[in-house]
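Example 5.3 — Histidine phosphatase family protein
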Amino acid sequence: MSKYAGVRTLILLRHGQTEWNAADRMQGQIDTDLTELGRRQAKEAARELVSRNAIAIVSSDLRRAFDTASALADHTDVPVVQDRRLRETNLGDWEGLTHLEVDADYPGARVAWRLDAAYTPPGGESKLEVGARSLPVVRELFAERQDWPGRTIILVAHGGLIAALTAALLDLPPLNWPVLGGLANTSWVQLSSHGPSIDQPGWRLDVWNAAAKVAPDVL
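Solution (predicted structure tokens):
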């Protein structure tokens, strides 16, 4: 038996490029579409990840994530299940603004937001809140998918959510959440659970920002 037979592998894939990504515009939960480049990125990621033989694909219900997940499903016989708890951070009053516009209207706020997981954009939610709403998705899969040990589950979501969920899974102190930086479009994170139970999952971070260059939009 493989020494990895009992290990649960979790891949968190960010969606492909949207016009708003290209324009440095804050999307949050606004439902935007993939660009042609984004659709190509999704297909390339799918070709790379199909070898993981995923047993489940769970996606944010926002189109940019669901369409990326659908490209992956096209290469497998695994259907996409949508879960709104995997939506991107609610950025409140910042949604629809460019980075420059946020900096002009709320001086210093984006820096504070990056450095403080408890910082809440006006009308939005903090990174800690994003981690808290998405963590149950993984805990439920842990409890329900008895076939997960030795196999892979893929969640398709958004950069901010993936960073928050990863920090929550690793149980990082909030002060340390900013160590997880941005993700390029259709890059992914891999974690593995080596623990004996849902209450002691023993998550480890194997890979961060895989198969992607550090793009300007994540700096």
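Remark. The beta strands are 8-14, 54-59, 80-82, 152-157, 188-193, 203-210.
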